[in-house]
TrEMBL record:
This is HEAT repeat domain-containing protein. Signal peptide: none annotated. It comes from Symploca sp. SIO1C4. The keyword Flavoprotein does not apply. InterPro entries: ARM-like, ARM-type_fold. Residues 448-472 are annotated as: Disordered. GO terms for cellular component: phycobilisome. The keyword NAD does not apply. Residues 454-472 have a biased composition (Polar residues). Keywords: Antenna complex, Phycobilisome. SUPFAM superfamilies: ARM repeat (SSF48371).
C-alpha cells in the first residue's frame, strides 16, 4: 500500500493523482495496520486543492475517495486523522480540511421544527469542560448545519430560528470565538466559521434577523485585529462585520451589472448611474483596512476586500485580491460580479489595464459560463473613464455592439471631454466606429433635451429607449452571437 504513495519530490499533479488513488484503494478495506492507514490519509490531506470539499457533493476524485473511506471500516481512523490535522495546522490548510470534515458530518437539514434538537447538544459541547477534539467536532457540526441550507440555495437565509435559540447560539459562538488562543485556536476558528454561515455573511445583503450589541461587534473587531488568530477566522469576522447592520451593502444598493448594460445599450446617460452610498461605519473600515494590509493568504484577502467594498471603502490594496476573485472560474457568478463592481469603484491604471486586456482578447472558453470579456466591456462602461473609453473606441477592436457601448458611455459621462472625443472620431477610418459615434452623438442630443421633449421623441422611435425586458444577459448573448 505504501508503494502507491507519492514521494516528496513528485510533481504536484502526479502526487495528487497517486494520493487520491491510494485513498480509493483504502476504501476497499485491505488488511493493513493503523499506521499505514494514517500515512495514506496524511498524503491525501497534503494534496487537497481548491476544488475539494466545496459543497455537499462529491465534485472531485479526492472527494469521492474520502467519501468511500468514510463508508468503510476505516471510517473512524479517517475521521480522527482529519480532526487532528484540523487542530494542528492553520489558515488555508485548516480551512480545506475543515471543509472535508464538515461535509462528511451526518446531520439532518436544519428547520424551525428540529433546530433546538440539532443545535443545543452541539452548543453544549462547545463548553470549555469538553476536550479540544469534542469542541472542534461540535463547532464543525454547527458549520455543516448552517452551511447546508446555503449548499442547497446560494441565497438561503437562516431566519427561522426561535428568538431565544438564535440569541443563545450567537452568544455561545461569540464567547467561544473570543477565547484566548495562546495554545490552539482550532475551537475558536470553528465557532466564527459557524457564525459566518449562520449570518449568511457570504451574501452581500444586510443581516437583520439579529441585532448585534456594540459589545458583540467589538468582539468581532478584536478577532479581526488579533494577529495571533487564524487568517480565515479573521476573514470570517470581517465578512460578518460587513453585513451585520440595517444599511444596504454597496453591492445590494443597485443591480450594477444591469445598470452598466443599460448605459452600454444607450438606454440612459452614464451620469444617471446610481451613486454608491458608503456605509457610516468608520470603526469597521479602520479594522478591515488594517487587516487587508496585514500578511495574510491571498484567498483570505479576497473576502476581506469584499467586506471593505460592501462598506463603500475602496483602496489600492483591494485590487489584487479582487482580481483573484473575478478570475476564479469556480466561484458563483454573483461572487465574481461583486468583485467586479468593487474593482470598478476602486479604479486605477491596473484595473483599467486588466479590463482592457479582458475585453480585447476573448477566448472560446471565456464565454461558455460567465463571459468575462462581456463583463470587462460593461465594467469599462460603468467606470466611465474617458481615456480608457477613448482608447477602446479608437482601437476599434470588437463588433458594432461593442463600439456602440463605448460610444454611448462617452456620450453620457459628466466630463465634457466625452463629447469632444466623439466629435474627434466622426471621420474614423473604421465604419463601425463612425456609426457608433454618430449614433451616440444623436443620443446625447436627445438626453440634453428637456424631459417632455425626450418623452415625445422616444414615443415615435425605439432608438435610445431601453425595453423593459432588457437584461445584461441580452447584452452577453448578442456579443456571443457576433463573435460566432
Amino acid at each position: 500500500m505504501l508503494a502507491l504513495l507519492p514521494a516528496d519530490n513528485t510533481p504536484a499533479e502526479k502526487a495528487r493523482a497517486l494520493a487520491s488513488f491510494a485513498l480509493q484503494c483504502l476504501a476497499e478495506e485491505p488488511q493493513i495496520i493503523d499506521q499505514t492507514v494514517y500515512k495514506v490519509i496524511d498524503k491525501a490531506i497534503e494534496n487537497l486543492n481548491d476544488f475539494d470539499g466545496v459543497n455537499t457533493k462529491q465534485n472531485t476524485l479526492m472527494d469521492e475517495a474520502f467519501y468511500a473511506v468514510m463508508q468503510s471500516r476505516f471510517r473512524q481512523l479517517c475521521h480522527e486523522r482529519l480532526l487532528q490535522s484540523y487542530i494542528q495546522v492553520s489558515d488555508y490548510r485548516r480551512f480545506k480540511i475543515g471543509c472535508i470534515l464538515a461535509t462528511k458530518t451526518e446531520i439532518a437539514n436544519l428547520s424551525a421544527e428540529n433546530a433546538a434538537e440539532i443545535l443545543k447538544p452541539l452548543l453544549k459541547k462547545l463548553n470549555a469542560s469538553y476536550s479540544v477534539e469534542e469542541r472542534v467536532e461540535a463547532g464543525l457540526g454547527l458549520v455543516e448545519a448552517f452551511y447546508r441550507p446555503h449548499g442547497q440555495n446560494a441565497n438561503a437565509r437562516i431566519d427561522f430560528l426561535p428568538n431565544a435559540l438564535l440569541q443563545e447560539t450567537i452568544t455561545v459562538l461569540l464567547a467561544t470565538a473570543q477565547e484566548e488562543v495562546a495554545s490552539n485556536d482550532a475551537v475558536s476558528t470553528a465557532a466564527i466559521w459557524a457564525l459566518g454561515w449562520l449570518t449568511s455573511a457570504k451574501i452581500s445583503d444586510s443581516y437583520t434577523t439579529y441585532t448585534f450589541t456594540e459589545a458583540q461587534l467589538n468582539c468581532l473587531r478584536q478577532i479581526v485585529m488579533s494577529e495571533k488568530r487564524d487568517a480565515f477566522a479573521r476573514m470570517w469576522a470581517a465578512l460578518i462585520l460587513s453585513i451585520c447592520g440595517s444599511e444596504k451593502p454597496v453591492f445590494a444598493q443597485a443591480d450594477w451589472i444591469y445598470e452598466w448594460a443599460v448605459v452600454a445599450d444607450g438606454g440612459k446617460p452614464h451620469r444617471y448611474l446610481p451613486a454608491i452610498v458608503p456605509l457610516d461605519r468608520p470603526l469597521d473600515v479602520y479594522v478591515l483596512q488594517y487587516l487587508i494590509s496585514s500578511y495574510l493568504p491571498m484567498k483570505a484577502k479576497g473576502l476581506i476586500a469584499i467586506a471593505l467594498g460592501r462598506l463603500g471603502h475602496f483602496i489600492p490594496e483591494m485590487v489584487e485580491p479582487l482580481l483573484t476573485i473575478f478570475h476564479n472560474d469556480i466561484l458563483l457568478n454573483t461572487k465574481r460580479d461583486e468583485a467586479l463592481v468593487y474593482l470598478v469603484s476602486t479604479g486605477g491604471s491596473q484595473v483599467i489595464s486588466v479590463l482592457v486586456e479582458g475585453a480585447n482578447h476573448p477566448t472560446i472558453d471565456d464565454v461558455k459560463k460567465y463571459d468575462p470579456p462581456g463583463r470587462c466591456i460593461l465594467a469599462l462602461v460603468g467606470m466611465g473613464n474617458v481615456d480608457a473609453l477613448k482608447h477602446q473606441l479608437e482601437f476599434g477592436m470588437g463588433n458594432q455592439m461593442t463600439m456602440d457601448a463605448y460610444a454611448n458611455a462617452l456620450a453620457g459621462v459628466t466630463d465634457s471631454q466625452g463629447i469632444k472625443v466623439l466629435e474627434s472620431m466622426k471621420n474614423h477610418h473604421k465604419k463601425q466606429v463612425r456609426d457608433a459615434v454618430a449614433n451616440a452623438l444623436s443620443k446625447s442630443t436627445q438626453w440634453d433635451l428637456p424631459k417632455a421633449e425626450q418623452i415625445n421623441s422616444n414615443s415615435s422611435s425605439d432608438d435610445g429607449a431601453t425595453n423593459s425586458s432588457f437584461s445584461p444577459q441580452d447584452f452577453f448573448k448578442k456579443l456571443r452571437d457576433f463573435r460566432s
